[in-house]
């Protein structure tokens, strides 16, 4: 599975990595205690974008429900670095109240950095309302956002059976069709997570078939390895038998 540290693997899209991805955390154990929540809450209303950004980032380390309405408001800030920081802050402080504002921002924000953070936050909210926008982003957005959308859809495993069933088809489609190997790899990982929540039915069988196909046929070694890992993690007998057969025959 690929994450934000692997965005350089997306061919021709190194520029899609957010500037925030390489900023050190605000605090570490060696630097002292976490930021003061009261101070950070006040800074969320500061007139300077830099201060609002730092305050929103602080709530990646702090869990405080009082920040939620402020972070939701900052999703529409004029500064994209504030917006993406707010999305990350919501991802660490997920709330049902944040789901619709996140969806709205995903649908209208021109900035790929921001949409990337928004899909991550939507996944962490673990809400059935996130399914459709995440599936759409996986199909239509830029590769960095598709990468995170694929991973975010794995969180639907915690929502409920119907949501898992709804997540399977778009992830299979991306596993088969997406031109970027890193996105396909994340889809393979996500299918493995979702299959663990499914009974042995036609939907489960279709998902396993997609993993088997990816393991046997995908041109990228990383995708094949992630498909194999998912098959092993699910423990499906057909998948395990195929892995054993192909490896004995020297295919891999």
How would you describe what is shown here?
The chain is mainly alpha-helical and about 250 residues long. Helix content is about 65%, strand content about 0%. The protein has helices at about 35-45, 50-60, 70-75, 80-90, 95-110, 110-125, 130-140, 145-155, 160-175, 180-195, 200-215, 220-235, 235-250. α5 (about 95-110) packs antiparallel against α6 and α9 runs parallel beside α11. The longest helix has 17 residues, at about 160-175. It contains 13 helices and no strands. The chain starts with about 35 loop residues before the first helix and ends with a helix.
What can be said about this structure in brief?
The protein has 252 residues and is mostly helical.
Notable characteristics:
elongated; mainly alpha; 252 residues; 13 helices; single chain
End-to-end Cα distance, whole Å, is 19 Å
The helix tally amounts to 13
The helix content is: 55-70%
| Largest sheet composition | none
Q: Average pLDDT, to the nearest integer?
A: 88
Question: What series of H and E elements makes up the topology?
Answer: HHHHHHHHHHHHH
Radius of gyration: 19 Å
The stretches of 5 or more residues where confidence is low (pLDDT under 50) are 4-30
Q: Given the helix and strand composition, which structural class is it? A: mainly alpha
Strand content: under 5%
| Number of distinct beta strands | 0
- Shape, per Cα inertia axes: elongated
